[in-house]
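User: I'm preparing a small set of examples for a lab meeting where we compare how different chains pack in three dimensions. I only have the primary sequence for this one, and I'd like the structure in token form so I can line it up with the others. Please keep the answer compact; I'll paste it straight into my notes.
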Amino acid sequence: MMVILTLLIVINLLLNRLFDLPAVLILALVIVSILFFLFIISFFRNPDRTTDINADLIIAPADGKVVVIEEVVEEEFFKSPRKQVSIFMSPANVHVNRNPISGEVKYVKHHHGKYLVAWHPKSSIENERTTAVIGNEHFELLIRQIAGILARRIVNYMKENDTVRQGEEFGFIKFGSRVDLLLPLEAQVMVQLNQYVRGGETVIARMELPEMEKK
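Assistant: Understood. Below is the structure token output for the 215-residue chain.
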């Protein structure tokens, strides 16, 4: 952040020294620079989140609004019916994505594609996206980061065979867009359509595990 702030200050000083700019234009440049810097701060913000580690809970991987809750056939990895919960991330939301469960990364693949609006029904399978599967001794789930009409860059830190911890960061999507969760059919979904959720905190679904296996 300090590099960007320093660069903006230098640009403003150089423009002021090299060109005989009227006071109104100088003020306008300063205001634009401040607004741009505030936008950068907002874009890269990463607020602390407290995740209660629990093996039978599936936690929201992103901030945003729940836009899809339905049963689908997942064709890329499981090739079987799954419950899909999709979260739409607006440009104003926190862009950091977090692990919904603890476990081992079974699969990671990036797909090049289109940039349809994130709520388009075909965005999950036609847009630029990264798919990852996390599994533990109880179940597996799939996370899909989807680029939208504005989001042109997906970052995913996961690698196959990595061990990840519930609530920790695994990537981000610039300018928001959408994150899909593909859950086992027995998962009990705990959110509703149009509900706003917080990554790393909101419980998306619950798995009924034997009491002795939850630890």
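A couple of notes for your slides: Residues 2-43 form one domain. Residues 23-43 form the longest helix (21 residues).

User: Perfect, thanks.
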